[in-house]
Amino acid sequence: MIPRSSVLFKRNPYMDEDGILRLSGRIDRCRVVDPATKRPILLPRRHRVTELIVDDVHRRYKHGSQETVVNEVRQRFDIPALRSVCRHVRLQCNMCMLLYARPVSPQMCELPAARLAAYMMPFSYTGIDYFGPMIVANGRKTEKRWGVLFTCLTVRAIHIEVVRSLSTSDCLMAIRSFMARRGTPIEIISDRGQDEWLLEEVGKIVPANPDKKDEMV
After folding, report:
1. What are phi and psi of 199, to 5 degrees?
2. Fold of 13-100
3. Where are the domains of the chain?
4. Domain 113-203 carries which CATH code?
5. DSSP string for residues in 181-207
6. Which of 13, 91, 150, 204 is deepest in the core (most CB within 10 A)?
7. Global pTM?
């Protein structure tokens, strides 16, 4: 007698002639379905045999999706909470650990002093970089334009200037326009551009930081 609290009570199981517990159903007259699918074998959720069967299907289908494993297991077996068993098997699979491993975030370094400057005007410490090109219409023809992105390293505010080319003269013009609107920065930080003498030209229009001993970064 199966108690009402059992998970098998509503499944209407029966014991076949070989002593195997199977699930009875209503599709016995269907001729296109395999007999093992009509009367699947009932297996407990927490058992080593159940894990081995699910793991075998998981490996035969090349560590595929969970729904693929669930569909193939249900062709012959009926397992309560099958998706939970598949998830457990997948977490124990070494190949899946490599395929679906999440990258570990590296430990961040200390912030530079420019990012922590307090009681300073915006853009006192500025980073500069280019983005583009962008195609714009000029009459009946199209031309390329680039954007010069100025970023305040302290409050992360941005200022954008548009230039016609990547030449040094256009870069200096963008810096002059930026300083006319936002003020003269204490320090400008940029990557290594193609023009090696650009820093010397910028040093002529941007006064050096006295704390840096007349050095532009």
Report:
1. -65, -35
2. Endonuclease III; domain 1 (1.10.340)
3. 13-100, 113-203
4. 3.30.420.10
5. HH---SEEEE---S-TTHHHHHHHHSP
6. 150
7. 0.49
